[in-house]
Amino acid sequence: LCLLAGGGLGLYETRAAAESRVFRRYVPDDEQRLPIATLELDGLIGSGEQLLQSRSDDAELHAAVARLHYYRFRLQAAETLDLVAPQRWSEATRWERTSPQAMFGTLARYAQIGDATALARFQAAPAVVEDLQPMSEHIRAARRACPILPFCGLFEALADQLDGGDPSLPLRREAALSPARTRLLHSLALSAEMIRDDELFAAALARCIALDPARTLDYVATARKRLSEPVIVEQLLSASPGPLLDFAETALSPAGRAKAIERAFVITSNPAIPEAERIYALGRLTLLAGDFGLAATQLAAAVAAAPEDPERRWHYARALHSDGQVAEARRQLQSARQLAPRNRSLNSRIDELERTLENEELNSDQR
Question: Which of 162, 191, 263, 266 is the most exposed place for a label (fewest CB within 10 A)?
Answer without folding.
Answer: 266
